Amino acid sequence: LSPEHITEIYDSFHIEDDRTGLSSETLQRAIADNLYYIQGKFPEIATLYDYYMAVAYTVRDRLLHRWINTVKTYREQDVKVVCYLSAEYLPGPHLENNLVNLGIYDQVQQAVESSGLDLRSILAQEEEPGLGNGGLGRLAACYMDSLATLEIPAIGYGIRYEYGIFDQEIREGWQVEITDKWLRLGNPWEIPRPENAVEVKFGGYTEPYTDDQGDYRVRWIPHQVVNGIPYDTPISGYRVNTTSTMRLWKAEAPESFDFQAFNVGDYYGAVDAKIISENLTKVLYPNDEPIQGKQLRLEQQYFFVSCSLQNLLKIHLLRGDPIETFHEKFVIQLNDTHPAIGVAELMRLLVDEYLLHWQKAWDITQQAFAYTNHTLLPEALETWPLNLFGSLLPRHLEIIYEINQRFLDQVRLKYLGNPDKLARLSLIEEGGSKRIRMAHLACVGSHAINGVAALHTELLKEGVLKDFYDLWPHKFTNITNGVTPRRWMVLINPRLTQLITREIGETWITQLEDFKRLESLAEDPAFRQEWRRVKRAVKQDLADYIQAHQGLTLNPDSIFDIQAKRIHEYKRQHLNVLHIITLYNRIKHNPRLAVPPRTFIFGGKAAPGYQMAKLIIKLITSVGEVVNHDPDICDLIKVVFLPDFNVTNSQRIYPAADLSEQISTAGKEASGTGNMKFSMNGALTIGTLDGANIEIREAVEADNFFLFGHTSEDIVDLKAQGYVPKTFYNTNPALKEAIDLIASGYFSHGNRALFQPLVDQLLQADPYCLLADYQSYIDCQDQVGQAFQDQDTWTKTAILNVARIGRFSSDRAIREYCREIWWVNPVSIHLEEYQQAKA
Ligand code: 7GP
């Protein structure tokens, strides 16, 4: 027998392991096995959800094999690890993403169909983990995907909220919040590791003592201790073995502590303490940018940060490394200031628990941390009242004083006789009631500070962080955000993925710059026609979904004009509404007006306490009520509010857009990432010169982008000159008519009071300059309408948008973080055979 023949015989006898095999036969057997032995169900009584669980466990088994090998490799090779600290993660449903990344979508589909089931309906069973509010949390998830795909050793630390972001329902046009019970039916993706629990202290007091060496030390005697239990979720990379860990902490009461130290014999008291402890990770705060200065929020922040840092130090020591080299083996990224307390906590751990000298500990800390800022909005900058902070974290307050004193000594040397400078840089805000400035703590404690788009970083350097920039210009970098093409293209838009791959191959999936090969195809009429066919089919899918869920019939040949993001005055959903009303008025005045039909689609949640945002939702739905049913409009305009904008629902939206609305007031949106997802899927953008819009426009070139509005400098000037919105209202008849119509009660059954707060805000203050940008926006929308009439040119522009969007992949962003901030390298993972791994 020839060697080839022997291999052939081996291959034909190859028996797959039921936990690792990837053929559809093995998968089918494994699913049946998991249904029986994990779910305890058999086909006669199994629900679709049971099947989802069985499929999920089957896929998780395949991941575990890779995950264990990943962890093992990192332990053995002593590699440097990126630790992403984020209070929020929005990973979206795991199952389909894992199928794509493992390359087993078709096999699983076949396995499931052979059992008489349908994969799409199984996928639809998954409850997504809504552990974030919006952009910041979703960015963390895209970065975890890219880190794994690029084979960078990484751990994402966060909070396992029992209730994530609320589910949104619309009742009588208003947002209603429903608690998100995502864990109710179990979560097959997480593995609890109670054996790795850590203790977190709160409250109490500190006392000095002298250690064996005669050194002055401080001891913290807490009032309460809470246990942190890690729950690990595997994060797969695309077609690589690397599988990273997202480790989320749940708070529990340490029973021994309650019974022995506290409430001796007090059974009820102990149970009470348990409830109090577990409240810590109960619920995500549903505010996006403006913060809510609640004690529980600070407790959440400190809790997960302390758990994570203790865990890191333990891993470091377990690898046999000395504490002094911690920063050489780990780099810790602060996702905004929510985890900034980590700077003080690492100092506490190093100085109080590991007994390092202050200066050594400080060097380690500064080199370990890096800080990303995600917003310029002043109301979103975190500060904590000193009293609150000190009563919860007395030791950290002392440490912050010490950091501040040493820092200000340095500042004093540099800026002799400039007390203003000192006051501005201080970690403590003086004045009425003193507060701790978390952004300052993050800046002082980090070796790198970055914004999330070019404009944003520039504005940081000139504005909120100017004094820090003057002091340490070398610490500042820009890393423009990116999004993962695996979820935001391959997974959500299989039709376009197939068309593109047929033409240019599939390298773009991990090298999105390769999209540039589409450029020449933009000139190919046959390709354009196919592109149009795909877009039309995808729009039809969304129309079908809306028909089924909202009973609204949409015209898939109309312009799908979409704005989907959190509801915020600075994002200006109400400017979009002013355009809708303007179009409506035009058609009412001239019923024969030739305008291309448009479907306006909105999606987004409002923070439950943000009244104006909730009123904007009511305005959108009320305008829709009138416009959609007015026979004079002849279905030329439709307005849809899609309830419950989350990752799952967003996946139906991005592929179907013709026009992406990115219309924030210039200088307010740090970056935006939805803008990238829309463009990647072939929408054209109407946008202001804000955040990453500027860079997207540069990349796709000005002719292929609908630009309007004042620049961020204009806005500053406008306000400096004393902005009077009324002037615009008084001199622009169409604008006046639109606002008057809202005020008249036309959209509110004659109730003039309903939208009064919104109208007043626009006419009297208009802090986000809608009125100043109104005419420019309307003119630009008219150009959009014109351009859409020429479908062929529109399609060409859409193709060029996709061809030039390559830079906005999160892979590019992560490569920049690796090179400029983290100093880490990829480590490839080789799979040991399962049997060997078990041995
Ligand atoms: C968001 C920014 O508003 C958005 O422009 C950016 O694209 C995104 O972060 C990712 O960088 N910010 C938040 O979601 C947020 O909560 C407050 O910021 C800290």
Describe this structure in words.
There is one protein chain. This protein has 839 residues and is an alpha/beta fold. The chain folds into three domains: 1-78 and 98-125, no CATH class; 80-92 and 128-447, Glycogen Phosphorylase B (Rossmann fold), CATH 3.40.50; 537-806, Glycogen Phosphorylase B (Rossmann fold), CATH 3.40.50. 49% of the residues lie in helices and 14% in strands. The protein contains 35 helices and 23 strands. The strands form five sheets. Strands 1, 2, 5, 6, 9, 10, 11, 12, 16 and 17 form a ten-stranded mixed sheet that branches. Strands 20-19-18-21-22-23 form a six-stranded parallel sheet, sandwiched between helices. Helix 23 packs across helix 32 (770-789). The longest helix has 30 residues, at 48-77. It is globular, with a radius of gyration of 28 Å. The chain binds N-[ethoxy(oxo)acetyl]-beta-D-glucopyranosylamine.
Q: In a nutshell, what does this entry contain?
A:
With 839 residues, the chain is α/β, with parallel strands linked by helices. The chain is built from 35 helices and 23 strands.
Layout of secondary structure:
Layout: H1 3-13, H2 24-37, H3 48-77, E1 81-85, H4 94-102, H5 105-114, H6 119-123, H7 135-149, E2 154-159, E3 167-171, E4 174-178, E5 191-192, E6 198-202, E7 205-210, E8 216-221, E9 224-236, E10 243-252, H8 255-262, H9 267-279, H10 295-318, H11 326-329, E11 330-335, H12 342-353, H13 358-368, E12 369-372, E13 383-385, H14 386-392, H15 394-414, H16 419-425, E14 428-429, E15 435-437, H17 438-444, E16 449-451, H18 454-462, H19 466-471, E17 476-478, H20 485-491, H21 494-504, H22 525-550, E18 559-564, H23 573-589, E19 598-603, H24 611-629, E20 637-642, H25 647-653, E21 659-662, H26 674-680, E22 684-687, H27 693-700, E23 706-707, H28 712-720, H29 725-731, H30 733-743, H31 756-765, H32 770-789, H33 791-803, H34 810-822, H35 834-838
Parallel strand pairs: 1-2, 1-11, 2-10, 11-12, 12-16, 16-17, 18-19, 18-21, 19-20, 21-22, 22-23
Antiparallel strand pairs: 3-4, 5-9, 6-9, 7-8, 9-10, 13-15, 14-15
Helix pairs in contact: 2-3, 2-5, 3-4, 4-20, 7-34, 8-9, 10-12, 12-13, 12-15, 14-15, 22-33, 23-24, 23-30, 23-32, 29-30
The protein binds N-[ethoxy(oxo)acetyl]-beta-D-glucopyranosylamine.
